[in-house]
């Protein structure tokens, strides 16, 4: 089953890099949004998560804050 996955990240965030590597290793397609460059998307991320920090992962509307491998696996059924 294909999931709708969006990663809100910044290029310098080590956990953002880990999240994207983890998704790639598991063959999960995702949209990456660089919130350091896109302020409208940064505001959307804060609205969705209540957080200023990255990474924020949106999996089918479920918001996961940080690189929480267990929650990501659960949301993706992997």
**How many domains, as an integer?**
1
Taken in chain order, the helices and strands follow as EHEHEEH
Which architecture per CATH? 3-Layer(aba) Sandwich
Structural class: alpha+beta
Unreliable stretches covering 5 or more consecutive residues: none
Count every helix, treating DSSP H or I runs of 4 or more residues as helices: 3
Instruction: Give a quick account of the main beta sheet: strands, pairing sense, barrel closure.
Output: 4 strands, mixed
Q: How many β-strand stretches?
A: 4
CATH homology-level superfamily: Glutaredoxin
Strand order of the largest sheet: 2-1-3-4
Assign the CATH class: Alpha Beta
Q: What is the strand content?
A: 15-25%
Return the CATH topology. Answer: Glutaredoxin
Report the mean per-residue pLDDT as an integer.
96
Percentage of residues in helical conformation? 25-40%
GO biological process, one term: cell redox homeostasis
Domain GST N-terminal: 3-78
GO molecular function: electron transfer activity
Protein name: NrdH-redoxin
């Amino acid at each position: 089953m294909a999931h709708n996955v969006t990663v809100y990240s910044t290029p310098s965030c080590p956990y953002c890099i880990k999240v994207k590597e983890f998704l790639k290793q598991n063959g999960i397609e995702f949209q990456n949004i660089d919130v350091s460059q896109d302020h409208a998307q940064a505001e959307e991320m804060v609205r969705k998560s209540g957080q200023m920090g990255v990474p924020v992962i949106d999996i089918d509307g479920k918001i996961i804050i940080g690189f929480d491998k267990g929650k990501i696996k659960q949301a993706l059924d992997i």
